[in-house]
Design goal:
With about 130 residues, this protein is mainly α. The protein has helices at about 1-10, 15-25, 30-40, 40-55, 80-90, 105-110, 110-125, and strands at about 70-75, 95-100. A two-stranded parallel sheet has the order 1-2. Helix 1 runs antiparallel to helix 2 (about 15-25) and helix 1 (about 1-10) runs antiparallel to helix 4.
Length: about 130
């Protein structure tokens, strides 16, 4: 579904992308994020998504990552929650935060739930 959406993105604009994201997440994107996404250049958004998917499997490299990492997910984010937790266990300097009561979209908008951990991770990287 997402691949087809990316192919149509340059011609149809970001509305279809937002609709696909909402269908995937099972809910409406918070209005501020929705508005920001709708203002995004469709070609830039498509390029960013293609680059993200082209990255490939990074799992074999994770045990060798020397830098601090912070992974977080809403506890109601299904498989992604468990995958993020397992990834954090595979990364030597990683920390995982489970955000109670939140799904995928809710976790991304929950700044107060992760801000201190983000700052601590950044500080750890300066060591």
């Amino acid at each position: 579904m997402l691949a087809a959406t990316l192919e149509r993105l340059p011609a149809e604009g970001t509305e279809g992308f937002v609709a696909a994201l909402e269908a995937y997440a099972g809910g409406r994107v918070p209005q501020e994020r929705r508005d920001r996404c709708l203002r995004t250049d469709p070609l830039a958004l498509a390029a960013m998504c293609r680059a993200l998917f082209a990255e490939g499997d990074v799992a074999p490299d994770m045990p060798h990552w020397p830098f601090p990492c912070l992974l977080f997910a809403g506890e109601q984010d299904g498989d992604l929650h468990d995958q993020a937790q397992r990834a954090a266990e595979a990364i030597p300097r990683a920390r995982f935060i489970s955000l109670p009561g939140l799904d995928h979209l809710g976790a991304h908008g929950h700044v107060e739930g992760v801000l201190e951990a983000v700052l601590a991770t950044l500080r750890a990287g300066a060591d």
